[in-house]
Amino acid sequence: MAPQQPERxxxxxxxxxxxxxxxxxxxxxxxxxxxxILGGLAAQTLLxxxxxxxxxxxQTDLRTLSAALDVYRLDxxxxxxxxxxxxxxxxxxSGSPEPxxxxxxxxxxxxxxxxxxxxxxxxxxxxxxxLLSLGSDGIEGGDGNAADIRLxxx
Length: 154
Description:
By secondary structure, the protein is an alpha+beta fold. 36% of the residues lie in helices and 10% in strands. A hairpin with a 2-residue loop joins strand 1 and strand 2 (128-133). The model has no long low-confidence stretch (mean pLDDT 83).
């Protein structure tokens, strides 16, 4: 006895049985409405926090600059002076103190600007360094998103 072949159903026979291929216009519209609602909620959540994200980015940049300054100090026995500034991490600085073991490749490829487009500030006062972003307003002091973001080390 030969194996029995499954019954093939022709497209016209499937239509007679009530089978419909694809989605109806209503189903597609319902899915689009649901996706729009979810997208709107996600966008609202993300767009309500850009200032917090900028503050976090500035804090991360300050930690990166601090780590590069620490490597500079390990090589040259002291941090760059305030006059030499953060540019000493990218190009060999002139002036005092002379960096005797400055890394020919530098310590950073380029200096980042803060998330508001301003340069980070650097101060070396008797070996105590301070890194600073003036925040969204670019003016010293401020509250909330306009507050200064500082990183101080001994």
